[in-house]
Amino acid sequence: MTGGPPADQGGSAARRRRARLAALAGGLAVTVAACQPSPPGGQPSSPGDRPSSDQVRPGPGAVERHLIKYGQDIPYPQEVAADPAAYTRLPFDGIVLRVPASVDIFSPRAVDGSALLRDVSELPADLGDLERNWVRIAMLDELDWSDDALWDGIAANSAALAEAMRESGDPYVGVWFDNEFYGEGSSPWNYGEGHDPWTFSATDGATPGLQPEEARDLVRRRGAQVMAAMADAWPGLEVMVLFGPWFSAPASSPGPAEAGLHWNDLAWVAESTPPTTGPG
Predict the structure, then answer these.
(1) Which is more confident, 215 or 97?
(2) Which of 38, 63, 67, 158 is nearest to 105 (CA)?
């Protein structure tokens, strides 16, 4: 089994998708133009300096792009099954779903593989253009990066989810990893004092007693452990990670906040501006 039926190689579905992506590219052209940094010398860009829609529209050999629905109204597969037309009439290539175990994958609680398979299998097999669907993982639990038994369990949970999606035969492509911490207590991403990520301490945070390099290496090993478990269960699995890019220097936090960029999150800037170099 694979994560879903093969992509349409032609016909009406492909034409509709191209039309949607062309409209999206036009919208991105406006965003790129609005966010483009000033040229050297500090003079603002003129309209003639801004990229046209042809410059931002994918060309031959470009990476394939998809429009995915993800909002506050994250549906369960059975909700989609109850009213599939409400979703298939939307202009998307896929949607992000949740299952009851979405909040248990990254936790000390072992998930039930048979229950996972039952839940993800509620998604209809034929959803028209909605061929690229995802199951969300959310983080609510404090996690000890040094606890081998805990991470063996998290890897097993992650593999169970990947296997359930693969075995369902429904149009899933992978895991939507919402790695923002929504729980109470110490965030797994707090490696030191305060709430800012990437501020290290030998005594506080989620990695007590470790120096920065040691903390990074440990967390990367845990990520590799989880990814290997999921890939073994479903070699074709795709993973979307939501958190980032962020300013890494804590001292930079007040600037974006004062400019209205709350949470110090620059992901939208990174996606909508051309590469820049220089000090700052």
Answers:
(1) 97
(2) 158
- Structural contact between residues 80 and 87, judged by C-beta atoms closer than 8 angstroms: yes
Q: Which of 103-117, 204-218, 252-266 has the lowest mean pLDDT?
A: 252-266
Task: Write the DSSP string, the chain.
Answer: --SSSPPP-SHHHHHHHHHHHHHHHHHHHHHHHHHPPPPTTSPPPPGGGSPPHHHHS--TTPPP---EE-SS----HHHHHH-THHHHTSS-SEEEE--GGGGTTTSSSPP-HHHHHHHHTTS-S--TT---EEEEEEE-S---TT-HHHHHHHHHHHHHHHHHHHHH-SSEEEEEEEEEE-SSSS-TT--SSSSSTT---SSSSSSTT--HHHHHHHHHHHHHHHHHHHHHH-TT-EEEE----B---GGGSHHHHHTT-GGGB-HHHHHHS----S--
pLDDT of residue 61: 60
d(CA 168, CA 4): 9
CB atoms under 10 Å from CB of 162, counted, come to 26
Banded pLDDT at 188 (limits 50, 70, 90):
confident
Q: Which pLDDT tens digit goes with each residue over 33-71?
A: 223 333 334 443 343 443 443 444 445 566 788 999 998
Any idea how long the chain is? Answer: 280
Q: How far is CA 173 from CA 1, 108, 228, 239, in A?
A: 12, 26, 17, 8
pLDDT, residue 22, reads 45
Taking phi over 0 as left and psi of -120 to 50 as alpha, with beta for the rest, 270 belongs to alpha
d(CA 174, CA 4): 10
